[in-house]
Design a protein that fits this description.
Length: 491
Amino acid sequence: MASLLDRLRSGWAAILPDHVPVAFKLGLTICVLIVTCMALVGVVILNQQSALLRSQMDDFGQAMVMQLAESSKELVLADDSLALNALITNLAGSEAVLGAAVFDRDGERLAHSGMIPEHGQDSSGADKAPAPFPHTFLYFADTEKTAYREEIRFQDITLGSAMVTLSRSAQQTGTRAAANAIILTTVFMSVLGGAAAFLMGQRLSRPVHRLVEATRAIGEGEYRYRLPEGRRDEIGHLMSAFNRMAQGLLEKSQVEGALSRYVSAGVAREIMSNLDRVKLGGRQVEASVMFADIAGFTRMSETMDPDKVAGLLNEYFTHVSHIARLHQGSIDKFMGDGVMVVFGVTDEDPDHRFHAIASGVMLQHLVARLNQVRDMEGQEPIRFRVGINSGPMMAGNMGAEDRMQYTVVGDAVNLASRLMTAAEPGQVLICEALFEDPDIRWRVRGQPHRSIAIRGKTQPVATCQVHDLSDLYRGAMERQIERLLCKERIT
């Protein structure tokens, strides 16, 4: 049984369209309601009309048969058959009277004209035993005619009976006319009501369509989309609430956009999604960090105007930001002429080690291309020192309750900073353990470098210099550098 119902539901769902407009539903509902109400009213009116016509016909038939009984009384006493036939013929000649007859007390027909029920039969044609005439009139009826009978009495003596047969065509005509009028009225009211409901449904569904379009626009990030206000109903309140929601989303988007200019996009998303849970603390992650600064920048800035110094820093830090984004990294902070970039912290990145090294190598190659232009313009070249390290570190909000910063700390971070300090201009230094990592070694080109002493460590740390990527990755890196330079030339 359940499977049969499921099949019926699925079959019905397959027949129904995916979308039925509200205007159509409202129009159909109003039409069904009008037809139902008019049908009920029609049934009541037709029953009342039929009962009224039947009552009028009974009154008319009673009057006719009583008049015939009274008129034929003396003729029956006088046994004047000729006069009786003339009376019956005149009476049956009218349009409404189908027939008339006079019977004696034994039920024998004395005179008749037109259609009358056979003696001893009822209206259905079944045999009926003769019975004494009642003291009140009665009638025999079928679908097309009705017969009325009345006793002919003289001084409490029953002389016989009179019978009149009337046509029911007038009653049927009146009933059909009433039914046709009700049907025409129902059709007219259904069409009129359906059209009015359809137009009303379209008017009511118009703001709903606007709400759907507005919701789609908000879903696509168009937070400036607004609905027209001014309605004084529930839909107007809904539109006002939607506009307030859109304004809130716009303000949140603007705050997130502004925040992402000061912190990484991942950090901005994490802060905006946990505004009620921003607190000091962090979590341990396995990530990579890159430190880079401009060698000799202090000396260089002494001979430059402050605005040119700021312009130079902004230009190169923009390149660093683009390179970090290409390798799924994020800017942690800018420190004077230096920058700190983290990989695999805010967004999970299983390949963060290679991405950090590839970013450092790409930065040095990009700077070399830019120095060719600076050399042709007679400007001093820019040299970056880069230090990269990977390992466990603590990531989270560091600082004070009223002033905090999302960053990473730990021994691996300190080593990356120390590697940058030990690097020569134009070098990318990593520790030997990272260089010998099986997942890294085949993808980079470099050679062992000197060991450096690290404060707090008893043994010097062996380092390696990375100067390029393997042939498998070098082509993609050069194409990315070319796109960045083309973008800079366009802007």
